[in-house]
Amino acid sequence: MSRQQDPQRPFFSFGNPFQMIYKGSNLSPKLLDLLKTFEVTLAERLKKLKPVDREDVLRLSWMRYAMESLCAIHTDIKTLITALEFPVCDWDDKWIDVYLDNSVKLLDICIAFSSEISRLNQSHLFLQCVLHNLEGATKQFMRAQSSLDGWRQHISSKNPRLENCFAIMDSLAETIDLPKIKNSAKGKVLMRAMYGVKVVTLFICSIFIAAFSGSMKNLMDLHVPETFSWAEAFTDLRASVNNEIRNIYSDGRVTVLKELEAVDTTVKKLYPIVQDGLDPVEAEVVQYSTSDLRIQTEKVSQGLDLLAKEVDSFFRIVLTGRDALLCNLRVGGNVTNTMQPTDDIQGQAVR
């Protein structure tokens, strides 16, 4: 999905881009430095996220790193807010309403992701049954076939929680544009930084939804004006990842997650053998395929567990940021130390 943006303006490599962008806005050197630090860091994170090999796209290890990067970016914006010393009383009511609304939507998306990771992990039980029935001295082909059928049905089924993410993503995309800031230099810095966070958050979440749902409906081709110093890094990353995801889907695969795809390939080799019965020629094929299946099953299980931890971390970061803002609204204080991530939340994170 793509959103219509303002026409891109040329980006000139000479001079100070921050002075050019904020000419006449009376930003102090301190504010310019804070913004520059945030945007340079954002650009570096995006560059590191670009897969070295296109085969890494939608690999669980890469998805874990993508979520880890998203956590870091959200922590960066909290650090910026603290450094700005921007009191809540100076925040526009619209900013607060949008932030609180968006944070709830992100929490819902995290819950959906955790639900899907848990569902995929349940498929591990089917594969364990397959291995148990094929690795013993007496091979139970009928039971192995039943477990293989169960695995394929489980993997191809749909998670209703993910269906709800489509509408949530559409709603988040509607608030992505930069608001007009008139009389607040700190507000301009904050909103510009928040724009970057929203763009990257939408992009990464759209990748996860595409990977988990089996649909490219919400794969976003967001366009960032070239006046942002991180625009080139983002555009390069977006093109690389989205193009590869579309190529993967064009092949009509059962699953687009690379580790699960490897399992599916082995399952396809085993299925006709366990269905028709074993002959001496196929004995060695079963042995090697079963060994491969065990290795691949462990990789999937470990990859999903690590990914679940990163989704849990993102949930905590969004929740602590939301709670900190609500706390400051009640006491009328500054958004300072309370905006830093804490470990005070027990039992709140998605499991």
From TrEMBL:
Keyword field: Membrane, Transmembrane, Transmembrane helix
Pfam family, one: ROH1-like
Main localisation: membrane
InterPro entries per the UniProt record, alphabetical: ROH1-like (IPR008511)
Keyword Kinase found: no
Taxonomic superkingdom: Eukaryota
Transmembrane segments: 189-212
Compartments reported by the entry: Membrane
Listed GO CC annotations: membrane
Topological type in the membrane: Single-pass membrane protein
Entry annotated with the keyword Membrane: yes
Family membership noted in the UniProt record: Belongs to the ROH1 family.
Name this polypeptide is given: Uncharacterized protein
